[in-house]
Amino acid sequence: MSKMSIRFYKDKEVRAIWDEDNSKWWFSVIDIVGVLNEQDDYEKNRNYWKYLKTKLKKNGSELVSATNQLKMTASDGKKYKTDVIDSDGVTELAKNFPSNKSSAFLDWFTYSDNSIDGQSKKKAYTLIESDLVEDDDIGTTRALKQIHAYIFGGLYDFAGKIRSQTISKGGFTFCVARYLNDELHKIDGMPENTFDEIVDKYVEMNVAHPFMEGNGRSTRIWLDQIFKKRLGMCVDWSKIPKEDYLNAMRLSPMDSSLIRKLLKGALTDRIDDREIFMKGIDYSYYYESED
Prior knowledge:
Blueprint: E1 4-9, E2 12-19, E3 24-28, H1 29-37, H2 42-58, E4 68-73, E5 79-85, H3 87-95, H4 102-114, H5 116-125, H6 141-152, E6 168-169, E7 172-173, H7 177-188, H8 195-208, H9 215-231, E8 234-235, H10 242-251, H11 257-266, E9 267-268, H12 274-288
Antiparallel strand pairs: 1-2, 2-3, 3-5, 4-5, 6-7, 8-9
Helix pairs in contact: 1-2, 3-4, 4-5, 5-12, 6-9, 7-8, 8-9, 9-12, 10-11
């Protein structure tokens, strides 16, 4: 039960934990109750679940008997036992929830695992167990291409391939395609011995944006690999709010001070901690979501 995950529904967390023996995810009931009620107060959500559980029992629902209890990390960083249900239980709970919002939640829940993002995220989770990138390649374009090909292979026909078209986002044009290979060669030659040098390299790779899609998700993994190799550190992405990160990256081509501050404040030496890695993938994908 060591693979932890966080899903985001309308910017609200839904915690999950992987059951290796039964090959399925268990989801926090309290979190689901919270998003369906649009309520952030933990105690109110817990009390509502107690009320709903009693009601479901009286109605003969099998959902309550299918509920398990597992330890999950709470907002205070400690692990507590909490009620969890599997994906079938999530569907059953939403269907029995006295709210007209449950339909939208179910659409999201079903789509989130079957979309390109959902499929690639499942592959990204397994990166911690792979020897995909050789030590000598870490910090190079070659390594970034390998990461991109791994998580998007079979989903995009351009997985791992440098783009040949010029792209833009939010009014900002990334490196013009005809200059891209030269720019990537320059980035490969940039030093990465200190925190500031690593962030400089990360910012330049973001400006280069070498792929048609999936740049942010693959480049954040690439950045963590450099931090681990050079500094013995990695980023706890859960400490960097989505809007703060996106704003900092928008400013970074002109002023990288904000992204430096955010990254430095989120560094941790827990480089072999599976939960830190899994949460990092979850937050990385959350940064790209449209919710």
